Amino acid sequence: MAKDKRAGISLIPKLILLLIIVGILGINAVYMINEQEQAVVTTLGAPSIVSTPGLHFKIPFLQQVHKVSTVINGFPIGYVPETWESIESESLMITSDYNFVNVDFFVEYKVSDPIKYLYASQDPVTILKTLAQSYIRDTIGLYSVDSVITTGKNEIQAEIREKLSERMEQEDIGLQLVNITIQDATPPTQEVLEAFKSVETAKQSKETAINNANKYKSEQEPAAEAKVDEILKEAQATKQGRINEAEGQVARFNSMYEEYTKNPLITKQRMFYEAMEELLPNLKVIIDDGSGSTTKFLPLEPLGQVSEEKEGA
């Protein structure tokens, strides 16, 4: 009986060891996948993707599981997120018009292929950041400082995003670019900033002057066009009047010539009388008898007026 007790006691450590081994195997035989998470299960060096959320089983020691988050992540370029302190080695760039500017970016990405993300490169996020910095500097160098700081931000972002997305597809490291945005763009020094503000003020003044000039132009054009139209109409009327008068004179001359060819003597006399009718009312005939007194015959004037002229003489 003592022998049985000793045998039972000796089995207890073995049972405990067996339970520990079973527990370890059990723990290593299951794994949990959460929402927005995928697992890469490697069986003897061959990887496969498990994307269904929940509890899953694996063969202990033969299968390795690496969980990969599929949520959108991001990193800054040019500043420290916690303090917004500028990192000039990343943010300071030169524009196409040879001005310096500080530009901060934020890059958003997500894992598109967990297997390639884990095994295609050693550090895919660092590769993405390096490529992003390269394309950012290359694109900023194509734009003026005015475009970078004010009007061209959307165009610059879109161009960088297109270039970087195409390059990431070529690299095929399991990362997908979601978005890249300009957080801030400022001149590097206060002096440059003040100069830039002065330039912006001058540009706004220029735009205001142009708008006022266009407004004045739009207000004055109708009046000017109406005046031109009036002058043209008056000129046309004068032209037509002179044409009509000339045509009338030609018609009268032709009529008189026809009468002259029929009766030259009578026509001459008629023309003489008509000429006299025009000339005599304005003709003054004065006869001087040599004694110093004069007598005015034509035109006949009132008696009082003739007496006044004599007295004056």
Give an overview of the whole structure:
The protein has 313 residues and is of the alpha+beta class. The chain folds into four domains: 2-69, no CATH class; 73-188, 2-Layer Sandwich (Tetrahydropterin Synthase, Chain A), CATH 3.30.479; 190-272; 283-312, no CATH class. The chain contains nine helices and eleven strands. Helix 4 runs antiparallel to helix 6 and helix 7 (190-262) crosses helix 8. Residues 302-313 have low confidence and may be disordered.
Observed structural traits:
single chain, about 325 residues, alpha+beta, Tetrahydropterin Synthase, Chain A, 4 domains, 4-stranded antiparallel β-sheet, 3-stranded antiparallel β-sheet, 9 helices, 11 strands, about 55% helix, about 20% strand, disordered C terminus
Concise synopsis of the structure shown:
This protein has 313 residues and is of the alpha+beta class. The chain is built from nine helices and eleven strands.
* Number of strand segments: 11
Look at the structure and give the mean pLDDT.
80
CATH superfamily of the largest domain: Band 7 domain
Biggest sheet: strands, sense, closure?
A: 4 strands, antiparallel
List the helices and strands and how they pair.
Elements: H1 2-28, E1 30-33, E2 37-43, E3 46-50, E4 54-57, E5 63-69, E6 73-77, H2 88-91, E7 92-94, E8 100-111, H3 114-119, H4 124-140, H5 145-151, H6 153-171, E9 175-186, H7 190-262, H8 264-279, E10 285-288, E11 294-298, H9 303-312
Antiparallel strand pairs: 1-4, 2-3, 2-5, 6-8, 7-8, 8-9, 10-11
Helix pairs in contact: 4-6, 7-8
